[in-house]
Design brief:
Layout (H helix, E strand, L loop, with lengths): L2 H7 L1 H5 L7 H11 L13 E2 L1 H11 L10 E2 L2
Antiparallel strand pairs: 1-2
Length: 74
C-alpha cells in the first residue's frame, strides 16, 4: 500500500492530541485509506469524536490514531 509513505509524513500532525487537522490532511488520509463512506468527515464544521477516530483507525489499521481524543476540522 502506498499510504504508509504519505502517512509517515503527517505522523506528528495526526498523533498530536492538541493539533488541529486541516482539510488537506484529512482528505489525504481519507483518500489513502479509501474510505469513501467517511466523506462526511471533510465537512469543515464537523467535530470528530473518539468513536469516529477509533472507527477510522480500525478501518485504516493506523495504530497511532488510537491516542487521539478530538480533532477539529478547520
Amino acid at each position: 500500500m502506498l499510504y504508509g509513505k504519505y502517512l509517515h509524513q503527517h505522523r506528528q500532525i495526526l498523533c498530536n492530541l492538541d493539533h488541529l487537522v486541516n482539510l488537506y490532511n484529512l482528505n489525504l488520509l481519507l483518500n489513502l485509506c479509501t474510505l469513501d463512506h467517511l466523506v462526511i468527515l471533510c465537512n469543515q464544521y464537523f467535530l470528530v469524536n473518539r468513536y469516529n477516530l477509533y472507527h477510522l483507525a480500525n478501518l485504516c489499521n493506523l495504530e497511532y490514531l488510537d491516542r487521539l481524543d478530538h480533532l477539529l476540522i478547520l
